[in-house]
């Protein structure tokens, strides 16, 4: 099924093949029994190998020796999920977050000064945004940088324990410098959140005066990453260390920025950092693919319980219950793969245009941010759920670290709450839907939670997904018989209706919060009582985006039999999605009881039909044999089953 | 809320308080950063402390120095979930499984000979049932023990790699002996599965000749337990090592048993070992309680995002989305606590009667087994889901090992697939429902999967839950106005209807499999296509049992305000359960669309109403302060928030 793989690989297929051919890739993995310090050391060494091999260069500007391939940087990051997730996250901290912050927020001189050392790892660094007291609400960070015109320095301070930078990768062991997100003060005035480069350790690795580093210690997973806490006590850095693309301080302390509104400046800055979220999302899809590759291969080798009238045991993947555990999840990974591919293309096109000095429509940038937030929420929750299902589907074998599933689960668990807590991200998506991209930008003051009800123009319901267009296109193509639940146009219409209805209802529920003279408490109560509705609206919207991407992805496939298979996978995705929320569709009269039962029957039928293709479908993820690692997926179980059956035969 | 706690504590409340007062309990926990070997050593030492303190004696017969308190042994095991889960599982292997096998399957002489050394840990042992090739299908184990009348010994052999005993706790490091489950052969005949005690290591810890032990290595969790693989090559053990309560071999090799049918003998033996399943179930409830204690306390301390019109940040547990994440799960833990209490009582009463030489109705024994299987499936899946939700609700803090949630998740993850895979256990429950307890016992030949469709009497639908009786009782008490979704009688009737309808439908779907002359392939196809229906029927039945237990549990509470609170928690449990499956209730015309929406609204309202009691509800689990351990739950977060607010105030 080379054609399926090619379709899944998308625009960066050549790069994917290039990375697949890395001969030493299977060595880039650490035995999970390794203790924390040894694990960190091993990951540090492997990171050096990646740096030496030029793995870091993809996304950086050509002016400083990079390849200028932003999409490629996300794809090459994603493929590290097949190696070791600690290595992947560590590389993401160094090149994606630390390097990315300098790239996105620094000026060309700053690029030239620091990025080469970032790429070749002579300057290991941290991305110090999150504080103990403030995770997803970055705008509220409490660390300060106060400009001192006498010495032309910034003085960086951590006023309270809550204001410590926390969970910072590279902090506990290796980092020499950090991009620290601070409230910037000059001439007694606050200018909002900015990033300042602060040296942490000298060349010998000694922590510098005024810097306080503590270790976050052992974690549920990712123990090869040296997360730690940073506090600063009157640490002075030169004026030139302010990453000043969006705001600078003159020698005399005068603040200037091309963006007047502090809010707008903040969100422009955050928007420039969107690549981190896109990368985590890709990693989640990669990890899910690997887990499913292992579980499906095992499910094809493993036999359990004899069939009636014989001693032959049944292959576990032949049981409907086992198919139900694995195949709808597999279909969803396909769907999210296509959604992720579109997201990466969008990121690449927008940021490449901007780096080349071109103009990017602000609406399109907002769309990218919303899509990145939403896709990341879907992919990371999916990874958590499906890796868990894979672990259970492999029983005790799945619990052994040698078979990777447990560690994949533990390593990816934090994805749902870092780079933005998923629940907060969904609210951001919903907020975008309600307020419309055309609204006064200044209203995006917190990440879509409480305050927004106070000042939104709730009447403007923005464009939704392209589902509506897709529905129309599909209608134009064929008669769209609605009798068949596999009719794509019917599935699309159903999801489109749900999105529209959910959003309309949400706007109606929130509108009273805009009444004049309403108290703050009452506003909060109105918002809060609709919060589950808000989250539902965001999900309905995102489900539409994903289905749309799946359909578009299939359109890029020219091989007829591969297309036919992908259509079936898409049916399983769409129908299991509808089945999951059948309560809503029934409640709102969108489907009849008979139709609802037909959907469940069809999901079962699709599981049965796709069963013979399960192995081909996971093979199409294109994970090279020697990377898979797990013995149960690479011959051990099959060999044991063969031996046991030969032995049984010898006794007869 | 001492009254709530007393109600939750149930019949063994005195023992619970006794264990709570253990002063050194908080020391019984290992730093998760500890490497595998050091972790194992630490757990071994702690197990010795437990043994020295008499922790082991509860469940063993008074004749050998035990307390003869079977329920107490389960409860004391459960409470170790608050300490270290590796320690808990290790203690379960030693006293529950190894000691339990000798107790349940051995004769009084064998008890006297071995149990004292089991209790005081001078004889560390293993429970070697599972094989690499056979997990839940124990009846198919391939290890053999062949009687040699010349030497009056059994010769134990592992014919293939699949037949290795696998995941065996105490095997890799500490075990000196194992209760090995084998196919017993004598005089050329097979007599089915029996357990034989096989020495593994000598007094110096050297592995004995013919015994092959390999290490299962690092695992996702429970790394303080030394799981390993055992293979036997012509290992000879004396005739007296056969645990022969249900089948013995005379010196000349003549086999005899009081139970003629091999099937029946097998299931009688398995039934005697039901305590393991009950214990795992209790541990899952304990772990869920601990996770919720941590997450709710953190949710009460943590603040994030400012409210409209002020700088005061909102306590995260005040957000509906956060309540939705935690409170329905908390209500379910309450429900499962009551179900678990009933299960332990049932186990205690039945096994105490039997140990005293009394007669136990076979139907009641089957009920116990079915209930243990089903409750274990519900509680362990619940633990996985709710600990995950707690981790996410605590964000990055939840990912740090010091806050315990990550390790709780990883340690308990295997619960869903050990002591019987949950999916297989649900099939066992469904099978019991269909076949009726009165059926020919010989039909229970495999754990309710494939073969059973071939030979079941599908017309007999057995008694279901006591839900029907509860419904009638509630109707007798009050008018049962069905307008109010909080009306218990309405909730009960709804669940009862679902159970009846699902079961009837299942029987209808399976009946064609009994047609004469039907092929084996067709039989399998019929069974397989209804497998999801089968699992649904089991769940519907179990949900009824749990609600029934909750209602009965509330009845034991005499304090009026505690009762009122428990009623609300029960409402949240019942309504969130119904909401979760609203698709089914709508599809089958059991609720109207308007009623369905009212249920969702009511779940939200209950979250709001219970919010002020959240802390009291987790405190009622009665986990002593110093056992909780997690800094975020024991003051650190509160202190930081106070400091941050004081600092902010000082700036104004």
From TrEMBL, chains A, B:
<dbReference type="InterPro" id="IPR009100">
    <property type="entry name" value="AcylCoA_DH/oxidase_NM_dom_sf"/>
</dbReference>
<dbReference type="Pfam" id="PF01756">
    <property type="entry name" value="ACOX"/>
</dbReference>
<feature type="domain" description="Acyl-CoA oxidase C-alpha1">
    <location>
        <begin position="271"/>
        <end position="434"/>
    </location>
</feature>
<dbReference type="InterPro" id="IPR006091">
    <property type="entry name" value="Acyl-CoA_Oxase/DH_mid-dom"/>
</dbReference>
<dbReference type="InterPro" id="IPR036250">
    <property type="entry name" value="AcylCo_DH-like_C"/>
</dbReference>
<keyword id="KW-0274">FAD</keyword>
<feature type="domain" description="Acyl-CoA oxidase C-terminal">
    <location>
        <begin position="519"/>
        <end position="633"/>
    </location>
</feature>
<feature type="domain" description="Acyl-CoA oxidase/dehydrogenase middle">
    <location>
        <begin position="126"/>
        <end position="234"/>
    </location>
</feature>
<protein>
    <submittedName>
        <fullName>Acyl-CoA dehydrogenase</fullName>
    </submittedName>
</protein>
<dbReference type="InterPro" id="IPR046373">
    <property type="entry name" value="Acyl-CoA_Oxase/DH_mid-dom_sf"/>
</dbReference>
<feature type="domain" description="Acyl-CoA dehydrogenase/oxidase N-terminal">
    <location>
        <begin position="23"/>
        <end position="119"/>
    </location>
</feature>
<dbReference type="InterPro" id="IPR037069">
    <property type="entry name" value="AcylCoA_DH/ox_N_sf"/>
</dbReference>
<dbReference type="InterPro" id="IPR012258">
    <property type="entry name" value="Acyl-CoA_oxidase"/>
</dbReference>
<dbReference type="Pfam" id="PF02771">
    <property type="entry name" value="Acyl-CoA_dh_N"/>
</dbReference>
<comment type="similarity">
    <text>Belongs to the acyl-CoA oxidase family.</text>
</comment>
<dbReference type="InterPro" id="IPR013786">
    <property type="entry name" value="AcylCoA_DH/ox_N"/>
</dbReference>
<keyword id="KW-0560">Oxidoreductase</keyword>
<keyword id="KW-0285">Flavoprotein</keyword>
<dbReference type="InterPro" id="IPR002655">
    <property type="entry name" value="Acyl-CoA_oxidase_C"/>
</dbReference>
<dbReference type="InterPro" id="IPR055060">
    <property type="entry name" value="ACOX_C_alpha1"/>
</dbReference>
<dbReference type="Pfam" id="PF02770">
    <property type="entry name" value="Acyl-CoA_dh_M"/>
</dbReference>
<dbReference type="Pfam" id="PF22924">
    <property type="entry name" value="ACOX_C_alpha1"/>
</dbReference>
